Amino acid sequence: MGLALRLKPPLFAQSKALAQPQKVTAAVPFVGCESDGQVGPVKAPTGTSKLVPISADSANHLAYYKSEQGFGVLAPRGWSCFGVYGSNGYALYVSPERVTASNLFSSTWSGFTGPAIELAGETGDTSGRFSVARVIARVFPAHKSFVEGVIAEGIEPASSFPFGPYPEDKLTYRSKEMVEYETPANTEGLGTNSRLKKNAYPISGAAILIGNTPDLMLLAVRLSPDLTDLAPPIIQQLERDAERSKH
Q1: Which residue intervals of the chain are DSSP H helices?
Q2: Which domain, by its residues, includes 175?
Q3: Tell me: the pLDDT tens digits for 129-158?
Q4: Domain annotation covers residue 4
Q5: Helices (DSSP H) in 114-230: which residue ranges?
Q6: Across residues 222-246, what is the average pLDDT?
């Protein structure tokens, strides 16, 4: 009778498996953010902890920030947040530095020069259509007709909507309506199509089209080197939220 040998997996395979963080459904704190805009200041909403499918270690470092308008976003715990809104859409800003209306509405403040997260929602059938069209021209060729329609209005010149990706951006398509990107350090790209100014650190994020109009979600994430491992779960959570909104 032959002997059946139970072989152990190679050591490198075991090491690789051990190196993968185990994802769990973890609760992260909810942080309400004040906002201001077209009809005046709005108080921070209240909410309960949000369940997210991330590693326990990531969950220990993140919270879910949300203003009264639109989507929320994961960001490092203990950061400051503030939202703005208008007929074109809304934006939520989260930063380790205090974020206030006086900065965001100031004509002299140039933007975030350090770590920050911006989540912008632009509405495609209002004045937000110009921002939507600019991003579509860059990364969503399947929706070129939307850009052509905006150009045909004659309000902004065609030169305001250059077609084709930013030269240095690295793009990863999840679908025809969802793309992840990285804008390298000290370059212009999707990441700087925000209130985040270019500096010595890269900006990562995602651009997502939602609905038939379509509307646009644009996320820009710049973290300090010790927190860069948090960028993927931040981006992936927005993608999950966007997908759920379609149903």
Answers
A1: 11-19, 56-59, 101-104, 129-139, 144-152, 231-245
A2: 22-245
A3: 999 999 999 999 999 999 999 999 999 999
A4: no
A5: 129-139, 144-152
A6: 95
- Considering its fold, how many domains does the chain have in total? 1
Residue 1 placed within a domain: no
Q: How far is it, in rounded angstroms, from Cα 16 to Cα 12? A: 6
Residue 220 lies in a domain: yes
CA pair distance 75, 25, nearest whole angstrom: 17
Number of Cβ within a 10 Å radius of residue 186: 11
Q: Give the tens place of pLDDT for each residue, 113-131.
A: 999 999 999 999 999 999 9
The pLDDT of residue 188 is above 90: yes
The amino acid at 72: G
Residue 200, judged by CB atoms within 10 A of its CB (0-12, 13-18, 19+), counts as exposed
Q: Is the peptide bond prior to 214 cis by the omega test (within 30 degrees of 0)? A: yes
